[in-house]
Amino acid sequence: MNHEQLLYLLLGAWGTVLLSALTFIFSALLGLSIALMRVSDHPLVRGGAFGYINIIQGTPLLVIMGICFYGPSILGFSDTSPLFAAVLALTVHAAAFLGEIWRGCIESVPKNQWEAAECLGLNRIQRMFKVILPQAFKIAVPPTVGFMVQIVKNTSFASLVIGFAELSYNAKILNNSTFKPFLYFGAAAVLYFLICYPLSWFSLRLERKLTVARS
Amino acid sequence: MTYQFDFSAVLQYWPLFLQGAETTLVMSFWSTLAGFVMGVACAIARSSGGPLTRRIVGGYVEVIRNTPLIIQSYFLIFGLSSVGLTMSILAGAILALVINITAYTCEIVRAGIESVPRSQREAGECLGLSPLQVYWHVILVPALERVYPALTSQFVLLMLVTSLLSAVGTEDLFGISGNVQALTFRNFEVFIVLWVVYLAMSALVRGAFALAGKALFVRKRRLGTPL
């Protein structure tokens, strides 16, 4: 592998990191809304979030990619960039999973904390934002960091329908012209591993720290 | 600009979709079955094997879980064919899926095995069960029952993710849909149809797993012991 090819792979890795970061930001916002909707008092709001999660979790990411890629153009937005379509699809997908993870975290805050907050005369919004969410946040950090690994890996889906130039796409381009699959896909695997493994490791460490702190 | 939906153009190819859905289910079935068996074996090796075995299985799990399936399948399938080892596309795809899902199953089952309290094990020994009986009745089966929901969702995800293997040329539902897109130029409608079919299939698979769970784990719940 000469250095131009390595540079091309690294360029792909940059695409992967960019896509992951944007997806994480937007899916965190959407996922938090979904999680809050899931614990809402209103059955319609709760049901809506439940439906969203179930539909998205029952759909392959590639199909969501296709709908987000071809959908905007039939709504009259021509020239949607691959980056936009990829971020949109990954956000829609990841928010369903993050929403469900965070709902679990919110619900694992002990029930007497909710009651105590109610006794203090806090209203619903104060209760949620001043008492419950700060505690849920601590529980949510390890699984969220762990889920970022999923996001990074899922960006590779964007190479198929959308053709966004990220790491796996660039590795495939290199292989198509040189036919050295072990070299290029091996190198891509190493790069993915270098991005993902620190996250996995960090998530595990946080989890252990938290369990020790709680027991 | 108003878009004219034309589903009839797409739906006239329903036999193709049906055929693709069948391939998807076949791929999912075999990779789930093989992945489950191998995953449980890996979990046993990782929780009670020697230090070297543990390290090897642990390394395998970490490598698989921290790299995307698409790279794994490219590496395996294009790699094997480049060294002259050719197999049918379907077999290669199933092999890639099995290698992938085994790592996830291993982690889930291992967590279940490790969650069995030591006292349970000792209680089994006190009852005079042989080590094998203890392992089967007290550790493995209860562990599997405990992690069954997590395994189920992992296998549903596996069914959905088989679509990715169309990148190496399998004629599963997603792969077939490429042909329909080429025939009709109705990309958006094709994706809507795919969406509906995949949703139906994941509901089907989820229902099948729920039924199987009820049939498999009808243990002595009436004793009232929490699991």
Give the termini separation of chain B: 59 Å
Instruction: List unreliable stretches of 5+ residues of chain A.
Output: none
Query: What is the CA-atom radius of gyration of chain A, in angstroms?
Result: 20 Å
Structural class call of chain A reads mainly alpha
Summarize the structure in words.
The complex is a heterodimer of chains A (215) and B (227). Chain A is 82% helix and 0% strand. Chain A is flat. Chain A has helices at 3-38, 43-57, 61-74, 82-107, 111-119, 124-154, 167-178, 181-214. Chain A is built from 8 helices and no strands. By secondary structure, chain A is mostly helical. The model of chain A has no long low-confidence stretch (mean pLDDT 91). With 227 residues, chain B is mainly α. Chain B contains 9 helices and no strands. The longest helix of chain B is centred in the first third of the chain and has 35 residues, at 14-48. Classes of the chains: A mainly alpha (215), B mainly alpha (227). At the A-B interface, helix 3, helix 6, helix 7 and helix 8 of A face helix 3, helix 4, helix 7 and helix 9 of B.
